[in-house]
Design a protein that fits this description.
Elements (H helix, E strand, L loop, with lengths): L2 H28 L15 H40 L1
Helix pairs in contact: 1-2
Amino acid sequence: MNRYTFHIASAIFFIVMPIVVLWYGYWDAAQPKVGPVGNGIKPPTFQQTLPFYGIMLMGIVSFLNAILRYREYKKSQQKSNNEEID
């Protein structure tokens, strides 16, 4: 696996992981609680979810950067191959 593939894979991980964690947090908040915990749904606050949104935004920017770098790499590979043939 070259570094461009790793960069793309890690960016996809940083996009998917916060979505899964947020989904689990909202799912867990919707589960009925019994005993001294109390009743009602208390979803995570904006301050609690802000780091996950930041990670997701970082993953999206990193993914776009990885795609651009991969395209440049492929163009340079094709250019060097064409020069060798000529």
